[in-house]
Amino acid sequence: MQIMKYSQNVQNLVLLVIVSILVVSCNSDGPEIEQPEKIYYDLAQKRMDNKNFIGAIESLEAIESKYPFGRYAEQAQVELIYAYFMNGQNLGAHAAAEKFIRLYPRHPNIDYAYFMKGLSSYTRDKDLINRYTNTDISNRDITGAMESFTELTEFLTRFPESQYAPYAKQRNIYLRNMIARNELAAADFYQSIDAHVAAIGRAKYVIENIPNSSENFRALKILEKSYKALGYEDLREDILKIIKLNYSENNTTESESSNWSWNFLKNSQPKNNSN
To answer: pTM value?
Structure first.
């Protein structure tokens, strides 16, 4: 009887373990099932179409990690740049662009990688506050703007015929004018504390190094005012002659002449070369 009772207890224990395993299995998602590469890629496209960039990043990163040498590996990496950028992960977009340039220097979408690298360096004005208000960001830290200007200039040098070149040119006009305004904001401050030599230095930098900006007239007026304050009448007269020669009374400012818009990004996904 004891043997039969012991055997029954063992059977009950085994049954309990089996039931417990089944319950846990039913209440969990189970082990991750690795999906074919194309399923990941198609899912990423569907998620991007639905503006679900977090989900798209997840699918594209899965391709990168699970199929690093697969058919969609290169395309997934270039589309990661776009997905990161659209999700507001600008550092991620910049890093992904640099990685793509390093790994695939001869890829058909290499111009896109260079373009997005420059674009993602400075996107502070993409914020809603700055897009829909009159917030002037030229007097803030513009290190990123200068880096973006340099990188987009490199892009235009390498790929002057790229389909993205017109957007890069417009963006660089915007950035160039912002950098000039930043320099002159500092010049205005120096004039306010009678540090006219420093103000002259800032204004001359704009004229000599950013000659096509919208701020040339303003820079000349700063020079004229500071030369007058310092008693440099000959130099002041030269500046007045330049102003008279180049600017009429009714045209003392230059337009920013930039039609830059973030809207183009809606249709700026990289070309698909994996098919």
So the answer is: 0.72
